[in-house]
Amino acid sequence: MKVAVEGCCHGTLDQIYAQIGKLEKQNNYKVDLLLICGDFEALRNPSDMECMAVPQKYRTMGDFSKLLIETGRYYVGQVKAPILTIVIGGNHEASNYLWELYHGGWLAPNIYFLGFSGCIQVNGVRIAGSSGIYKSHDYHLDVFLSHDWPTSIENYGNKAELFRRKPHFKSESLSGELGSPPMLHLLKTLQPKWWFSAHMHVKFEATFNHGTQQPENFSVRQDPPVENPDEIKIDDLDDENGATTLENPDEIIIEDEINQATPNIPPKEQARRTQFLALDKCLPRRNFLEVIDIPISSNGPEGNVGSPYITFDPEWLAITRALHPFLSLQRNQKHVPRSEELQKLVDTERVWITQNLADGGSIEIGQIQEFTPTAPGPGPGRHSRQPPTYTNPQTEALMSLLHLPNKINPRSSPSSLQSAHVTPITSSKDDADPWMKVGGPSEWHSPSTSIAAPPEPSPAVDEKDDTSAPGRWSPSRAMEET
Fold this sequence. Notes:
6-stranded mixed sheet, 10 helices, globular, about 20% helix
């Protein structure tokens, strides 16, 4: 399966798909899947821009849902993504829309969001998201996507070249402040075959051998630093030919997370290797896209050979059920049990998934979740203002599938769940279609009156925004809530 990997999207879908088409023509191959590593910017209308924690000068609509002067109308259906696209969130997102799909779902036809954390399968290849997840040590992944880099990953590649292109990275690396400690924890624990990231706006490759000695000059910060280690460089004018990078006066400084020490993870008996690749953002003469061959373990049902087949991951469904009682919308999170107890809960839910869901939980996602627009797209007379809260039928459908209450954005009354109803599996073994598709209405959904609203967006954020801005997509916040 040929997989295209893209760094920071920043709404440039048209250019990304055009570049893939160019590569396909030049190399005479067909790309099966596109993975986007964050800063997707799924904007539906001007109101969504009010929920992005970026300075006003960066609040452009992007290709995702522009006004009539552009052709990138993916959300409203005028343009459909030509390739199955899997995306994760970065730190520059319309948090209100992504909140509707907290557990994952279709942002637009053929564009699937993994959720604040999630795992799905494409042609049998396990692809996991980045926002902090629990997994047992024997839960092997093929691909992991994160927006930020794992801390210390620069020590496993050509860091001299990295520091030449990004001189300001050197001091952060020496102090152990470059990247995300939670991502390093996940890298050591999950040990995926491939790890793709973005965020730093530079291409970088590394090979992380699990269970080996730490590289020279390895360090991980032990105490939260006073200054922000995860500043975002909006470096559109960086010289990709190797000139020294000067400090960017227009950089966006947003603290992505509270930095904590990363505990040592014992190596597995059989050492594994993770190939790490970070890519730039979509700009001319930048390394923002790469096509990789990934072996597949299945092609889906007969008749689907050659086309991507996207299914739920049974293990992740079990994890979702096991952790759902601990999902809190309050600032003070519920206490999560220790790993041993949590593993027992996951094992119990794995049995439930096997006994109650068709195909043991390996259900085609399109049978349960179908893209349905909630907020209106851009149009004449629409102005930027704080948007209302919408209930997304895809979230309702997934919660119905798992027999769980919708904590994210429930409607005000049970009777309003009709459009997202999923029929439970029947006792008849002859039933060939035990699940109903999500039947979305053709008109826009009415705003929900539920008290379960997404985090209030920040009405105005400048370059010196701090960690308290609740409208910002935050990996650490997702980890606390998962």
